[in-house]
Amino acid sequence: MxxxxxxxxxxxxxxxxxxxxxxxxxxxFLDGEFHGGECRVFKLSFKDxxxxxxxxxxxxxxxxxxxxxxxxxxxxxxxxxxEAKGFPWAPRFLGASVTFDNPVKHPFILLAWAEGLPLSWxxxxxxxxxxxxxxxxxxxxxxxxxxxxxxxxxxxxxxYFEQRMRNRLRRVREGTIPGxxxxxxxxxxxxxxxxxxxxxxxTVFAMDHGDIKPGNIIVDKNYNIRxxxxxxxxxxxxxxxxxxxxxxxxxxHSANFAPSPTILEDRQAYTRSLSSHTSPxxxxxxxxxxxxxxxxxxxxxxxxxxxxxxxxxxRVGWKVDCVFLGLDEEQRVADAQGS
Length: 339
What we know:
Residues 15-339 form the Protein kinase domain. This protein has twelve helices and eleven strands. The chain has helices spanning 11-19, 65-84, 130-149, 157-173, 182-190, 192-196, 239-242, 261-272, 280-289, 294-305, 307-315, 327-338, and strands at 29-35, 39-45, 52-57, 93-97, 108-112, 117-118, 151-152, 204-208, 217-219, 225-228, 235-238.
């Protein structure tokens, strides 16, 4: 365990830390503070300059200084790459303090503030036609992210996933992952070839945001998507993940929950918006998002990175039964698909 650390997130210290990066707007003031799962974000505004976001990872005494610094450096590299590639939906990177030796005593990233509000999204809101309008935008953003980061590597998808599985198995044998057994890991490994299919030998990789959800999507008053925030989980991954279903289009918490009729209709609108695209990236999205047993494949791939989903999938015997709809509801979804 790392030694206890002292942090100072008082406004005057935030102002001083930001000024060290060259931000010298007049009359700075703290305009808001927001808490996410992995970070705190301070909105800093000025009398004569645009607002900025100060993104700070939640202090954690169980994580070493070196690992914290590495996490910040990875996110900085991601944001810089996206800017260099011309991807317009990530927040603009302004600077970073990759050290604990600053006035707030913690590394942070400085970003242009994304104007707008987090998307409000549930089974009933927003209504049509806004809902399909937003789904089309989200699909376009996923497609753009794949297209601008697509690359051929030297590692196959099979090798990539097998390495992650071996690491998980080693930790289970060491007793550091409660709730998982060696059998759970071996059962998972046995299904990999079947899930990947013809993509088993693919060396095509692209960036995945890792946590696309309504709270990370910033929209204006007309529901135009202005920015996608929180790139702390972004990574270069096999196309099977990068082109897969976005997280709000499947039940992310457990293998015990089936997609609702609304989610199934949302998927149809999402993929329908890609129907006129013929690029390799779009075809990969359509293939992975409309594949047979898409729910099983999605949850299986999630289980490789998520210990919670691994436990959930093992408990249901690696069988995800998604025929949960009544006949009338199934027909309604089928009709929507054909329209």
